[in-house]
Amino acid sequence: MIEIKLDSPEQLLNSFDPSPFRSRDLDDSAADYIVQCADEAGSGEPLRLIIELPPSEAARDLTRELPAALHNSFSYRADRTRHELRELFRMGRLSLAIGLIVLAACMLVIQFLERSAERTTLVRMTEQGLFIVGWVAIWRPFEIFFYDWWPLKHRINLLDRLSTMTVDIRKR
Question: Fewer CB within 10 Å of terminal CB in the chain, N or C?
């Protein structure tokens, strides 16, 4: 359960966003607070947001639309994060293709040096350097596919939960 005490529903909204209320974006600090609280709550429990307002503010039409605005905002943020994840995987695939080409080229040069060059210290150092360069070229794609996507997937799941949470408006 997340509780927020406000003086007016506008405090949750981005004041620079001229969109109609249901389409408006949440204020970044308010959204960050709600996301942080939801993250601390854990993933096993349904989320519930309680917004406490003065009686005069709780009766406004704007306040009745607040749950839909919150759901729309978190749904939009989840969609944006899904787009980020798709872009990350696209970048990972492109990086992997480039990395494999660089690795293959390095291995070919190493093979060429082993067959045609004298086995001097400089040639061995060059081979070792090329070997390292080849593996470093595929480091970033491995990092993307093994580690970088987890936080985005976690954020998507959290934002999806927030987009369907129960929102209660209470009078103070």
Answer: C
